[in-house]
């Protein structure tokens, strides 16, 4: 799912190049894949990529998929408007499709569980791996 972020903040050249690449990639990308794809645009060292990724994460425009060690552009308008720190994804092990879940049901269930433990989370990322309907067929 391609999306265009709605911003009230002007992005740097490097941030704009990274977010555009992630939006158009159609799949999660690792930092070194981003570096390789943007070498002809002036990227020549990993710190440039990591700096842009960190800033885009802070702005709520991208997510880091922990299980894949990769990044994906936000698919939901609510991410960057609320700097959502609680995200959920389904990840197909067959075709690599990643879909961000918009339902608050998962976040609500997690909140109940952590409240029972008297625990205050600062960030959570739920990644559910499996097969999408196309790969099952």
CATH homologous superfamily - what is it? Winged helix-like DNA-binding domain superfamily/Winged helix DNA-binding domain
Instruction: Give the termini distance in whole angstroms.
Output: 21 Å
User: In percent, how much strand structure appears in the residues?
Assistant: 15-25%
Helix fraction by DSSP (H/I, runs of at least 4): 40-55%
CATH class reads: Mainly Alpha
Helix and strand element order: HHHEEHEEHEH
* CATH architectural name: Orthogonal Bundle
Please tell me the total number of domains.
1
Query: Low-confidence stretches at least 5 residues in length (pLDDT < 50)?
Result: 1-6
Coarse shape: globular
Return the structural class.
alpha+beta
Radius of gyration: 16 Å
Strand order of the largest sheet: 4-3-5
Count of helical stretches: 6
Number of strands: 5
Query: What is the makeup of the main sheet?
Result: 3 strands, mixed
What is the averaged pLDDT score? 86
CATH topology: Arc Repressor Mutant, subunit A
């Amino acid at each position: 799912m391609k999306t265009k972020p709605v911003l009230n903040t002007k992005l740097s050249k490097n941030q704009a190049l990274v977010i555009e690449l992630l939006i158009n990639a159609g799949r999660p990308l690792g930092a070194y894949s981003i570096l390789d794809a943007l070498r002809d645009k002036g990227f020549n060292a990993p710190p440039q990529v990591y700096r842009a990724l960190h800033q885009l994460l802070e702005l709520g425009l991208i997510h880091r998929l922990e299980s894949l060690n990769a990044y994906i552009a936000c698919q939901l308008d609510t991410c960057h408007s609320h700097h959502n720190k609680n995200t959920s994804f389904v990840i197909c092990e067959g075709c690599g499709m990643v879909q961000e879940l918009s339902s608050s049901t998962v976040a609500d269930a997690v909140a109940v569980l952590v409240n029972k433990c008297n625990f205050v989370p600062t960030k959570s990322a739920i990644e559910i791996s499996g097969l999408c309907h196309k790969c099952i067929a």
